[in-house]
Design brief:
- The structure is a single chain.
- The protein has 583 residues and is α+β, with helices and mostly antiparallel strands.
- It has a domain of 246 residues: Vanillyl-alcohol Oxidase, Chain A, domain 3.
- Helix content is 36%, strand content 19%.
- It has 18 helices and 20 strands.
- Strands 16-13-15-14-18-19-17-20 form an 8-stranded antiparallel beta sheet. It has a 5-stranded antiparallel beta sheet with strand order 6-7-11-9-10. Strands 3-5-4 form a 3-stranded parallel beta sheet, with no helix packed on it.
- Its cofactor is FAD.
Length: 583
């Protein structure tokens, strides 16, 4: 029922008696002569009141509410649909999105060359998109993009020399499948397999292993299509300086159209997962780093739990028992129990009895648990402790092909920041990698940050690509990569906004220790600050580590109209216009 607000003089019921404090005023009015103006005012206000009542009645009976109106949820305002010629493109976690009218998908080298030549002539943007998975949306541009999704063929396999030449739009998973019949595979892998090979190498992606470099080091040669100079063939022999610069070129020097990669023989690995603690890790770290082909640590904040994952060829193991002590259901039992208890607290007891809970994987359960109260530190600590229990009951061995073993379920949508820093050499590790983690974990506890698990720590050898965060001329150098995260386990816009703000506060606090370790962010995960002073500081910091002037010089030679650029690239590497002296 609709309610109308009426003047207070109309709300007193007929026949009601005046209160005591009104009597003197009423007596005075009754004994005084009634001026003509008072009668006119009364008629005027009575008319207003009748008009207001009439309007209210007309509105009520003309637009009645349905009988169940009070039980219906409010319908949010919906924006008009996007025009049909707009392409909505977002990264995997939906943290970055653009709407662009131009999204080209050439199906041949010639079509790509024509597209870039036209964009150069017309001074239009055409940013290489890759698969668009990067956490920071480095390949996105609302002004225009080009995807090589239709350029995804294997062009040549040299089984003898263990090399493969592919079009750069092929996805890593598809390439691995194609190499299988030739008995080959890639040397190392990142956590996921959905990247296009071109983007995979351009951002300096990496796996883990102190003797294994980032993936750009697997590049032997490539064809780079540039706006100003057409297609350039690059290798260690053909223009080596530009070759090394362009291997990790962030899509700013040209579009990688074809690439030849060094492969290795297809092989199996035995993965050993076990739970340790900080003291044991310190005691064994140098030994583990040198003895294991692949190794990573998963640190669980607010606990003393470190999950150690070691992967090696089967020959290194003496027929290990390839089963875990506990079954999958037993490993998940504690996490399921916590989820049911939390549902009773935050939701309803009925929901806690939902049989579907027993079908969820660990990462799905973690997402649902965090979604109940993602920014409450005490709640996040409970979830982290449940994760520690899960890993304790998941200890054991498993064996499989390297591309299967080296993958990692990262969980649902998330914000992530990962940085890379030198940590000595393979023969003489300096232990700064563990010192960094100790400071980070202490910072989290001191600041009461609702930091979920895990903090993933990996290692690589050096890269000769000067734009790689692991760039170094030291053949024996080792770099550690550390990633922090906050999950986005909800579609609620306000909650996602709150998580986003908390994550950037978390990242800012972590940033306070970067300079002590010469740590620099992964190119696919670096975020551009909005504050001008912070941006200027970041630009200066990047100049201290990377050959920014050489990179910008190459950009201006190969792409003077900045066809391949986007806002992120321009802010990270602003091109300083030359000052012309007056004659």
């Amino acid at each position: 029922m609709r309610h109308l607000l009426l003047p207070r003089l109309l709300l007193r019921r007929r026949g009601s008696s005046p209160t005591a404090h009104h009597l003197p005023l009423l007596r005075a009015l009754s004994s005084a002569p009634s001026p003509v103006s008072s009668d006119a005012d009364l008629r005027k206000y009575a008319g207003y009141a009748l008009l207001l009542l009439g309007c209210g009645a007309a509105t009520y009976y003309s637009f009645p509410f349905p009988a169940d109106a009070r039980h219906k949820k409010a319908v949010p305002f919906r924006y008009a649909p996007l025009p049909e010629d707009l392409h909505a493109v977002s990264n995997w976690s939906a943290t970055h999105e653009v709407h662009a009218r131009v999204l080209l998908q050439p199906d041949s080298l010639q079509a790509l060359e024509d597209a870039l030549a036209t964009a150069h002539k017309e001074r239009r943007k055409l940013r290489p998109l890759g698969s668009g998975l990067s956490p920071n949306g480095i390949g996105l541009s609302r002004a225009g993009m080009v995807s090589l999704a239709l350029m995804d063929k294997v062009l040549h396999v040299d089984a003898k020399n263990k090399t493969v030449t592919v079009q750069a739009g092929i996805r890593v998973a598809e390439l691995v499948d194609a190499l299988r019949e030739h008995g080959l595979t890639l040397q190392n892998f990142a956590s996921i397999r959905e990247q296009q090979v071109g983007g995979f190498i351009q951002v300096g992606a990496h796996g883990t292993g102190a003797t294994l470099p980032p993936v750009d080091e697997q590049v032997i040669s490539m064809k780079l299509v540039t706006p100003a100079k057409g297609t350039i063939e690059l290798s260690r022999e053909k223009d080596p300086e530009l070759f090394y610069l362009a291997r990790c070129g962030l899509g700013g020097l040209g579009v990688v159209a074809e690439v030849t990669l060094q492969c290795v023989e297809r092989h199996q690995l035995v993965e050993h997962t076990f739970v340790s603690n900080a003291d044991e890790v310190k005691k064994n770290h140098k030994k583990w780093l040198s003895e294991n082909k692949h190794i990573k640590y998963l640190w669980i904040p607010y606990t003393d739990t470190v999950v150690v994952v070691q992967c090696n060829p089967p020959s290194k193991w003496r027929a290990p028992k390839l089963t875990s002590k506990y079954g999958k259901d037993e490993a998940l039992q504690h996490v399921r129990s916590l989820y049911r208890e939390s549902l009773k607290k935050y939701r309803t007891e009925t929901e806690s009895n939902d049989p579907e809970i027993d079908t969820l994987s660990f990462t799905e359960l973690r997402d649902k648990l965090l979604a109940l109260d993602p920014l409450d530190t005490e709640h996040v600590i409970k979830v982290n402790k449940a994760e520690a229990e899960y890993w304790k009951k998941s200890e054991g061995y498993r064996m499989g092909w390297s591309d299967e073993i080296l993958g990692f379920d990262c969980g649902g949508q998330q914000w992530v920041s990962e940085n890379c820093f030198p940590t000595g050499t393979r023969t003489k590790p300096n232990m700064k990698d563990l010192d960094y983690i100790e400071k980070l974990l202490q910072l989290i506890e001191n600041e009461d940050i609702p930091a979920p698990a895990p903090i993933e720590q990996r290692w690589t050898a050096n890269s000769k690509s000067p734009m790689s965060p692991a760039s170094s001329s030291g053949e024996d150098d080792v770099f550690s990569w550390v990633g922090i995260i906050m999950y986005l386990p909800t579609s609620d816009a306000r909650q996602r906004k709150d998580i986003t703000e908390e994550f950037f506060s978390y990242r800012s606090l972590a940033q306070s220790i970067w300079d002590d370790y010469s740590a620099y962010e992964h190119w696919a995960k670096i975020e551009v600050p909005k504050d001008k002073d912070e941006l200027a500081e970041l630009q200066a910091r990047l100049r201290r580590r990377f050959p920014v002037d050489a990179y910008n010089k190459a950009r201006m030679e190969l792409d003077p109209n900045k066809v391949l650029s986007n806002a992120k690239l321009e802010k990270l590497f602003p091109v300083l216009e030359p000052v012309h002296q007056a004659k």
